[in-house]
Design goal:
Blueprint (H helix, E strand, L loop, with lengths): L3 E5 L4 H14 L2 E6 L11 E4 L18 E4 L14 H22 L4 E5 L28 H17 L5 E6 L2 E3 L5 H11 L15 E3 H11 L9 E3 L8 H12 L10 H11 L2 H8 L7 H7 L7 H16 L2
Parallel strand pairs: 1-2, 1-4, 2-3, 4-5, 5-6, 6-9, 7-8
Helix pairs in contact: 1-5, 2-3, 4-6, 6-10, 7-8
């Protein structure tokens, strides 16, 4: 069923991919909400400038005749946050900005809001190899300001939607990769491409990721599926890998050798503590397992792309950007 969809954060990594899919495959009418006109958006959707997102953003024009909102925009996780009060900065955009949008959406007659949250609401991962994977049933355990703001947004959405006729669907993805990716995943690709030796050969873990094509497919599934209403879903590729295997797969996609040094995890943790990069090291060493059986069982959804296909698409994009 085709609907009119408002996509916030349409200029972003996930937003661009979602707009492309909705226009290409769903036959939907797409309204792309962007903060400024300076960045290029995928051609096709109706563009609507909304400015900075926060508790006082006006959404009336963007919400006109909209059936479903997909809320992607937010203040992303920042490794070195310069804000004097990081939690307040995250809350203003991610929590208060989201609740403000939901309230205006309900008043505008929007039927459903799909909110892309984060697996970090569940926690930072499993401490030991035998620990159970994350599921929707476990209590939230956000451990930083970014995750806390997202969790509070989830709670605020559920409270705001009650009695207002607005259905809320929440998705919690792990690390997202694909064409246009940035941050740590892009840095890892650059290191592999340049042939830098990586001290990760002895890491034994399991990390679940999600290809952007799989995430936007899950979002598209949640737009109108009746069983998605008022549900929380974890989503992943379903083929988690150890960090050394991820490096090998990236290397293969880039047609480069994987240079992995067998450095003990204890040495890496010590180096992380001394350099002030403890959290970044733990993300490379620790496990993060996701049980996404609920969305598969409830909606009949399964990821259309394998990890191999996702990494190959990411590598092709990378080559188109950096050459070689």
């Amino acid at each position: 069923m085709a609907v009119r969809v408002l996509v916030t954060g349409a200029n972003g990594f996930v937003g661009n991919a979602l707009c492309e899919q909705l226009l290409r495959e769903g036959g939907h009418e797409v309204v792309a909400a962007v903060r400024s006109a300076s960045r290029r958006t995928v051609s096709g959707p109706i563009r609507c400038l909304v400015g900075d997102i926060g508790p006082h953003t006006g959404w009336q024009q963007a919400l006109a005749k909209v059936d479903v909102v997909v809320h992607l925009a937010g203040r992303v996780h920042v490794m070195r946050d310069a804000a004097s009060d990081p939690l307040a900065a995250y809350r203003s955009v991610n929590t208060e900005g989201t609740i403000n949008l939901a309230r205006q959406a309900a008043l505008a007659g929007v039927k459903r809001l799909v909110f892309v949250s984060t697996i970090k609401v569940c926690g930072e991962g499993q401490a030991q190899e035998g620990d159970e994977p994350y599921t929707e049933r476990q209590p939230a355990h956000p451990s930083d300001a970014y995750a806390t703001s997202k969790w509070e947004a989830e709670e605020g959405l559920r409270a705001s939607a009650k009695g207002m006729g607005l259905e809320v669907v929440i998705l919690r993805p792990p690390l997202i990769y694909g064409p246009g990716v940035g941050a740590n995943f892009l840095r890892l690709m650059r290191a592999v491409d340049r042939g830098w030796p990586l001290p990760l050969g002895r890491v034994r873990n399991h990390r679940d990721l999600i290809f952007v094509g799989n995430l936007v497919d899950a979002v598209a599934c949640c737009l109108t599926h009746p069983a998605a209403a008022d549900k929380v879903f974890l989503v992943a590729d379903g083929d988690g890998v150890a960090t050394p295997e991820l490096v090998r797969r990236i290397a293969g996609a880039l047609d480069r050798p994987a240079r992995l040094l067998p450095v003990p995890a204890a040495c890496l943790r010590a180096a992380g503590a001394l350099s002030g990069k403890r959290q970044a090291v733990e993300r490379l060493l620790g496990s993060l397992r996701v049980d996404d059986s609920l969305i598969r069982r409830t909606l009949g959804w399964s990821p259309p792309y394998t990890v191999a296909a996702g990494l190959l698409a990411t590598a092709r994009w990378y080559r188109s950007v950096v050459g070689g």
